[in-house]
């Protein structure tokens, strides 16, 4: 490692500065010329010292290996950017298609295999849940005192989605029912898919009110649906899932914003599947930000969310939804992702 600098006069020993080295390495990796880096860091270090760091870093085999990986990632990002630029040319670039009673073969060809989102109507019109699932009915069937797992205290944490495991609480279902009845929007209490394993037995009395979607889903142990139940105002911030999802709205309306999976490089990824973008900031970014699509789903609508597509969801009303991942076609994208950790 660097331990001396050749000055114009005589060599002088300098103490290695890891912070300066990291700043220089980061800028070199961004493709900046050493002279520009020296100018940017002029208030922190002598330009000659910055140049010495740059020369040593550029010649280090660790840095050269890292740059080989960075070059491969830049190539991949370029390909994805080409796809994003092409997508923007479509007159429907910011709109999610709506189809009625889409047959499974067409859905597979145009959306599942093509990785394009779609809102489908008419798939679940036969579900009793569409007419039965009121707060009173759910409370009567499940039981007011029946303990259920939910996320509670979400409004006390700005990073509530990242802390969702810490916000797990067991509450009587009556508390959920009261939230559904309330006219006040709230993001504080929400039964989500993440609570599914703990709630399967509690929700058994209403599980028969919905069912598989012929040609779309197949029965699989423990994967026959995940419930989302909460008042108006519940929010799921931008993230992406590791599977294809089919979100079926049973009660109320939800507004969904989505960003294509090829916008990965511009989505400010945090903790691998979350994003530091807020919806407001992304909307303000306009064409300078990632492509943003918007739709609204209501009772009976099924929204297909392709794997890796970022989505932000807001409940406009008291809401009940069922999420399926047990498609009739392969959907195990999570395993190779997790194996690469």
Automatic annotation (TrEMBL):
InterPro entries: Cupin_8 (IPR041667), JmjC_dom (IPR003347). Pfam families: Cupin_8 (PF13621). PROSITE patterns: JMJC. Residues 181-341 form the JmjC domain. Coiled coil: none annotated. PANTHER family: HYPOXIA-INDUCIBLE FACTOR 1 ALPHA INHIBITOR-RELATED, HYPOXIA-INDUCIBLE FACTOR 1-ALPHA INHIBITOR. This is Cupin-like domain-containing protein. It comes from Rhizorhabdus wittichii.
């Amino acid at each position: 490692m660097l331990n001396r600098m050749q000055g114009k006069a005589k060599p002088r020993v300098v103490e290695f500065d890891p912070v300066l080295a990291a700043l220089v390495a980061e800028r070199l990796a961004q493709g900046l010329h050493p002279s520009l880096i020296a100018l940017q860091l002029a208030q922190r270090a002598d330009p000659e010292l910055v140049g010495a760091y740059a020369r040593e870093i550029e010649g280090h085999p660790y840095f050269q290996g890292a740059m080989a990986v960075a070059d491969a990632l830049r190539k991949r990002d370029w390909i994805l950017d080409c796809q994003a630029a092409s997508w923007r040319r479509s007159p429907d670039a910011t709109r999610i298609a709506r189809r009625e009673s889409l047959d499974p073969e067409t859905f597979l060809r145009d959306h599942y295999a093509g990785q394009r989102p779609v809102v489908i109507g008419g798939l679940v019109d036969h579900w009793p849940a569409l007419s039965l699932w009121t707060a009173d009915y759910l409370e009567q069937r499940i039981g007011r005192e029946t303990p259920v797992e939910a996320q509670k205290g979400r409004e006390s944490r700005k990073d509530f989605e990242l802390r969702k495991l810490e916000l797990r609480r067991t509450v009587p279902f009556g508390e959920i029912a009261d939230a559904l009845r309330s006219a006040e929007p709230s993001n504080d209490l929400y039964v989500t898919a993440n609570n599914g394993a703990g709630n399967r037995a509690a929700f058994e009395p209403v599980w028969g009110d919905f069912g598989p979607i012929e040609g779309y889903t197949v029965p699989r142990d423990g994967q026959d649906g995940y419930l989302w139940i909460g008042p108006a105002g519940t929010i799921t911030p931008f993230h992406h899932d590791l599977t294809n999802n089919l979100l079926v709205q049973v009660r109320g309306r939800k507004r969904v914003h989505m960003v294509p999976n090829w916008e990965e490089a511009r989505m400010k990824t945090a903790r691998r599947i979350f994003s530091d973008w807020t919806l407001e900031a992304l909307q303000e970014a306009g064409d300078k930000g990632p492509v943003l699509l918007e739709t609204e789903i209501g009772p009976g609508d099924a929204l297909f969310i392709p794997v890796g597509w970022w989505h932000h969801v807001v409940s406009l009303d008291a809401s009940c939804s069922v999420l399926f991942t047990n498609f009739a076609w392969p959907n195990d994208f999570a395993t190779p992702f997790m194996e690469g950790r």
